[in-house]
Model the fold of this input.
Amino acid sequence: MSSRPAVLVMIPGVAADPALKARPAFRLVDEGAPQLRVTDLAATRGDGVFETVGVFDSRPANLTPHLERLQRSARMLDLPALDLDVLAQAVDAAVTAHLPVPELLVKIVVSRGVEGQSRPTAWVFADAAPSYAAARAGLRVAALDRGIPTTAPQTSPWLLAGAKSLSYAINMAGLREAARRGADEVLFISSDGYALEGPTSTLLVKRGNRFLTTPVDAGVLPGTSLGSVFELVRGEGAEAAEELMTLAQVAESDGAWLLSSVRLACPITHLDDVELPVDRALTDRLSAAIAGRK
Ligand code: PLP
Done:
């Protein structure tokens, strides 16, 4: 048994177009050995797309929605169409090859490829997930201006608002600013004053018997975790909808969470200086739904 049981699968057959495919479609490689050219556009421009999938009890949660979202992001970046069957097989190979652990994190990455070669590079990387116990217990969240309006997807699609591109340096800078403000996390606010999403998470807000989130066409990523949560709460008779909300409306709500595939449902305990109510039992049910442990 290796001390670091991460698994890496390279996927030369990621493109749907047979002319762009190399063989074999995917292969397990030594995760410690070099695999990327320094001129790969993933490295030089962050030019590509990715997904992070949670694996609970050896089962990837929401794999099909993740792969469909990867295809959507690829389309938004004018990347070649992806072969989702090959990607699903590569994920399965990575999960199967990994030592069983309660929670596994699987990253799927597709870049535009080596400069000048017009052929995407892709890989799947699986590793044991770190402990998210502190975040799942509750987050202090700083509201930060993202600097673009909710109309950006319509007026300026080249900003790629709502695509899961590899260019996450801004999102990470937001997290460092939150830390400087004594917070654990970020809620980005649009320049026209509406709550958007976290750097790696979707906003969920409870108001009475209504569960609300930011509309996707305001420039946020369509969350796969949100899909599971909306299915759960609708099944229990609650209303689930997209609605633009101001920061004040989130702060006055009956509870708010940041949702994501690996960290699951993290209740917001404080939004800037405002304390929010936390429902532990509901939070656990939301997390179970995201993890597929219904
Ligand atoms: N929004 C952004 C910007 C993200 O990066 C992520 C996930 O990393 C999410 C939302 C949550 O998406 P999901 O629930 O599919 O993990």
Remarks:
- Residues 150 and 218 are 4 Å apart (CA to CA).
- The pocket of pyridoxal-5'-phosphate is lined by residues 52, 164, 197, 200-202, 221, 223-225, 259-261 (CB under 6 Å).
- The longest helix spans residues 63-76.
